[in-house]
Design a protein that fits this description.
Layout: E1 6-9, H1 13-24, E2 29-32, E3 44-47, E4 50-53, E5 60-61, H2 70-76, E6 85-87, E7 90-96, E8 99-104, H3 107-117, H4 122-144, H5 152-158, H6 160-165, H7 170-176, H8 181-187, H9 203-216, E9 218-221, H10 226-238, E10 242-244, E11 249-255, E12 258-264, E13 269-271, E14 275-278, H11 281-288, H12 296-304, E15 310-318, H13 322-325, E16 331-335, H14 340-345, E17 354-359, E18 373-381, H15 386-389, H16 395-414, E19 422-428, H17 430-437, H18 455-460, E20 471-474, H19 484-506
Helix pairs in contact: 1-10, 1-19, 3-4, 4-9, 7-9
């Protein structure tokens, strides 16, 4: 019988982070990956002279001293930061019809620019930043005590405003702060990174994201997201971790509501009382665990959650430079309404008027040959809208029609002509994202955020959601939903919570 201290399922960033934290504490860790390589969703594909990423949501907190920045997390597991990051000059540019707003980094700079766009907004923005800072500090306290009993007296005494706003949405709190509607619309333009509108997103979650991004800047890896996966995997191996590829887990073994190992599709069994899986709850509890061993609480939890949006992405390799097209920003948000709730209400339609765009050469001139550029255009889609519109015979036609609409929308918004410069194109639908990440409908944003399905209640309820003793989940469906950045932090958190339980059980 082969016994392991801990088993990690999935060679993802979150899986490696969980493993690295366990290795730091002296545990022997086996990582199982069903494919023959690591980081499937972060890899790239070559098309002619251009190399496109499978997933282009790769923003990271820019300040290395922040506890849950990428560099801060690497420090926690004693891994040298060998990934070179490029800082963005501006946070985002949002375009809606004739309206165009470019928002900078830096608290004072952001407030002053908003006052320029919306006179009379300064006081409410200052109050927003003060409240957001308190929310960040409160959540650092909460996260540092995951898996433990929280002191609500400390929360009430030291973070009273956080407690007061925690149950409310972004729009509810901003209305209370009497922030002008236009300022709210500009501030809330980043809803698209969450996949939910301002009426659904928790104020705390959005405030933390905006405060950290604005105050400390945002960076992107200069040599693509796959470099991060490579860095984490190499450190995992150097610290004594073991990886087995082509090892698809068929079943998580559970007895008396306690994990005791996993079985692969070839019937190989590895035993352990600690299993960490980088995947969504739906897949774990409906596919990997026998129905008789799934706790009723887990089933009730699944029934209350809705899977968040997926993406329809058009990768373009153009035979001209970004400067020739007049594209100076890395990140563009293109909408046909500044009301995020209106845009979200349309997400279940085939074409819904939202997209976020990255122009890679703006921060990395070497990402493609001189005189060329790479542009990634992505639209959000909620649910399996393909069932009503697409079948095997018309799939290719739909894919091309959708791509053309997305390209033309961007051309109209930015007054550019890019169709005539297309040298290479790669279209990635939700179906293909589903192939990359193995998630329901290719969902990229975790569970849909609304009401009590938000960061604060999920974090506060973290201990109660450990339904099976010794089983932990990590990845973009665990806790926050900021893409690659939260994927990494969720792995570290899962590893840390697992260690506390292992120390209690084994007396370390």
């Amino acid at each position: 019988m082969e016994m392991k201290d801990a088993i990690i399922v999935g060679a993802s960033n979150s899986g490696f982070m969980a493993g690295l934290e366990l290795l730091e504490k002296g545990y022997k860790v086996l990582l199982l990956e069903e494919h023959n390589n690591i980081g499937v969703s972060s890899k790239t594909s070559r098309h002619g002279r251009f190399e496109f990423e499978n997933n282009n949501i790769g923003f990271y907190l820019g300040d290395n001293d922040r506890e849950y920045s990428f560099a801060g997390l690497l420090d926690k597991v004693n891994v040298p930061n060998e990934v070179f990051f490029q800082s963005l000059d501006n946070f985002y540019t949002v375009i809606c019809g004739d309206e165009k707003y470019t928002m900078p980094f830096g608290k004072e700079e952001f407030i002053n620019k908003m006052e320029e766009y919306v006179p009379g907004s300064k006081v409410s923005l200052e109050e927003f930043f003060d409240l957001s800072n308190e929310c960040c500090n409160a959540m650092e306290y909460v996260v540092s005590h995951l898996g433990e009993e929280l002191s609500y007296d400390i929360l009430k005494d030291e973070y009273n405003n956080f407690v007061r706003v925690a149950p409310y949405s972004v729009s509810r709190v901003l209305d209370t702060l009497e922030m002008p509607i236009k300022a709210q619309e500009i501030l809330n333009a980043c809803w698209i990174y969450f996949g939910s509108g301002e009426g659904d997103i928790s104020f705390v979650e959005y405030a933390m994201f905006m405060y950290n991004a604005i105050c400390y800047g945002v960076s992107v890896p200069a040599n693509r997201n796959y470099d991060i996966t490579l860095t984490l995997s190499q450190a995992f191996l150097e610290k004594g971790g073991e990886i087995k590829f082509n090892s698809k887990v068929e079943r998580v073994l559970v007895e008396d509501n306690t994990v005791n190992g996993v079985k692969l599709i070839d019937n190989t069994i590895y035993y352990s009382d600690t299993v960490i899986i980088s995947s969504m709850e739906n897949r774990v509890y409906t596919e990997l665990i026998e129905a008789a061993n799934v706790p009723r609480k887990a089933i009730k939890s699944l029934n209350t959650r809705k899977v968040g949006p997926s993406l329809f992405t058009v990768h373009l390799g153009l035979n001209c430079s970004a400067s020739e097209l007049g594209l100076e920003e890395y990140s563009y948000l293109v909408y046909d309404s500044m009301d995020s709730d209106v845009l979200v209400s349309r997400l279940e339609s085939i074409y819904n008027g939202n997209q976020f765009v990255t122009v890679e050469n703006v921060i990395d001139s070497d990402v493609s040959p001189s005189g060329t550029c790479i542009i990634n255009l992505s639209a959000l889609i909620l649910g399996n809208v393909f069932d009503d519109y697409v079948d095997h015979d018309n799939y290719k036609m739909y894919e091309e029609e959708e791509a053309l609409k997305i390209i033309e929308t961007f051309e109209y918004a930015t007054h550019t002509k890019i169709k005539e410069h297309i040298e290479e194109i790669k279209i990635v639908s939700p179906v293909e994202y589903s192939y990359f990440n193995k998630e329901h409908y290719g969902a990229m944003f975790g569970y849909y955020l609304h009401d009590y399905e938000n960061l604060v209640p999920r974090i506060l309820n973290y201990k109660n959601e450990l339904y099976i003793d010794g089983l932990y989940l990590c990845g973009g469906f665990s806790g926050d939903v900021f893409g690659y950045s939260s994927d990494i932090s969720s792995g570290y958190i899962a590893g840390s919570v697992a260690i506390k339980r292992m120390e209690e059980r084994h007396g370390k």
